[in-house]
Automatic annotation (TrEMBL):
Cited InterPro entries: DENR/SUI1_TIF (IPR050318), SUI1 (IPR001950), SUI1_arc_bac (IPR005872), SUI1_dom_sf (IPR036877)
N-terminal signal peptide: none
Organismal lineage: Bacteria, Pseudomonadati, Bacteroidota, Bacteroidia, Bacteroidales
Chain positions covered by the region annotation Disordered: 21-41
Family of the protein in this entry: Belongs to the SUI1 family.
SUPFAM superfamilies assigned to the protein according to its UniProt record, in alphabetical order: eIF1-like
The keyword Protein biosynthesis appears for this protein: yes
Species of the source: Dysgonomonas capnocytophagoides
Superkingdom of origin organism: Bacteria
Protein name from the UniProt record: Translation initiation factor
Residues of the SUI1 domain: 48-108
Keywords noted in UniProt: Initiation factor, Protein biosynthesis, Translation regulation
GO term, biological process aspect, one: translation reinitiation
Pfam families: SUI1
An example molecular function term from Gene Ontology annotations: translation initiation factor activity
Length: 115
């Protein structure tokens, strides 16, 4: 149960005469994951700043980090390569654009496309 007059929530507010004033807290809301059908993933080959090595880059994922990690693990195991996932991007070592596209479409990511 939360108290209405919790002083810790309003440390930066001195006084308000508005009876309908609500104190804003700085807590971030967790971003929810879009359904697979609405995800518009981009698959591209990237060679920049990688010492000549190519990586498959999957971008535009909208959702939680846990869901991103799960998708990255699925793709890495199905392609048999290493990689990483952070900031809405999945990196797979090597050129697997067509294979990733096929895997994503079978999983229900219909709007995925190769750039």
């Amino acid at each position: 149960m939360k108290k209405d007059n919790d002083w810790k929530e309003r440390l930066n507010v001195v006084y308000s005469t508005n009876p309908d004033f609500s104190y804003e807290s700085e807590e971030e809301e967790e971003q929810s994951t879009l359904p697979k059908e609405k995800q518009s993933l981009r698959i591209e080959l990237d060679k920049r700043n990688r010492k000549g090595k190519s990586v498959t880059l999957i971008t535009n994922f909208i959702g939680t980090d846990d869901d991103l990690q799960d998708l990255a693990k699925f793709l890495k195991t199905r392609c048999g390569v290493g990689g990483s996932a952070r900031d809405g991007e999945i990196l797979l070592q090597g050129d697997f654009r067509q294979k990733v596209l096929d895997l994503l479409q079978k999983e229900g990511y219909a709007k995925s496309r190769v750039i």
